[in-house]
Amino acid sequence: MGWKESGVDDVLCQKPDKRSIITYVSQFIRAFGESPPVEEPNVYAEFLEWLSHAYKLDLVNSEQGVGAIYSLLAQNLLESLQMYFRLRREFIEYRSVFNTIMATKLNFTVEELTEIQERWEIVRRNLEAAAASAEKRLPKPYSTLSAWTVTGQTIINTPLNLPSEDPHKCLTMLQKMISEHNRHFIEMAAKQEELGQAIETGGLGGRPVAAEYVEPLRVRMAALAEEAPLKLATLKVLHAHYTVLAYLYDLEVKMNLWRWVLVALGSTGTSWDRVHVT
Questions:
Q1: 176 and 84: one domain?
Q2: To 10 degrees, what angle do helices 110-135 and 77-93 make?
Q3: What is d(CA 59, CA 32) in angstroms, rounded to the nearest whole number?
Q4: For 209-235, how does the pLDDT look when each residue is reduced to its tens digit (9 = 90+)?
Q5: Which residue in 235, 69, 260 sits closest to 158, CA to CA?
Q6: Residues 110 and 50 occupy one common structural domain
Q7: Residue 192, CB half-sphere, CA atoms under 13 Å: how many?
Q8: Domain containing 23: what range?
Q9: Structure pTM?
Q10: What is the pLDDT of residues 52-105, one digit of tens each?
């Protein structure tokens, strides 16, 4: 058409012509018009597909399970180790997705949420049972370090089933969790050092143990060292949150009491000045 592109100055004058305004608006729409909507991917589909298979794996009793790792008749040692490590790695990777689902409870029915939580707990218990079952056959101190690690994993993975309707009860539960957490993990550094020395010098009596046999324990303890501070930080944040809620709850109780007093005074015709507060 031979028209030059309009600029801001063409439409900010006192009497811009209609053609300049129409041209400027059309240029703006072409340049900054709405982009086509981007379809949001189903971020949970992959997790649910993984969970539907993972919870069926029996790592302890299966011929492919970690329970066979220390058997003298086991011919698939490498495959068993790889299976355990793969499932453990995937479990850790999907933990944030699981926590998001449980926290938001969006896009899922109550029945679906219950099923997801049950399957997740099955996977967690299977992983812990597989590791503990295998490590019981190791000489000391590996077996005792394994028992300590299992206890630590239980503390880390204990679900936070806090009664939202009672902030004071939540505070009591959180204080107990924090105390239990600190009491156990105060030995974290010492246990890691003990394991490191055992790997270098051997178990009780200097009995050498192949590195691949103690690798699951080393990995679990290293993961525990990373997860423990995060869990403690979460507990402390929740404790601060419920401290505020408990304060607001107490304040609301007192305000309701004063409202009741005022209503009672109004119904009896008693003057506030005549009320003696002790």
A1: no
A2: 140
A3: 56
A4: 767 678 878 888 999 999 999 999 989
A5: 235
A6: yes
A7: 13
A8: 1-39
A9: 0.54
A10: 999 988 776 654 444 444 443 344 555 666 777 788 889 988 888 888 888 777
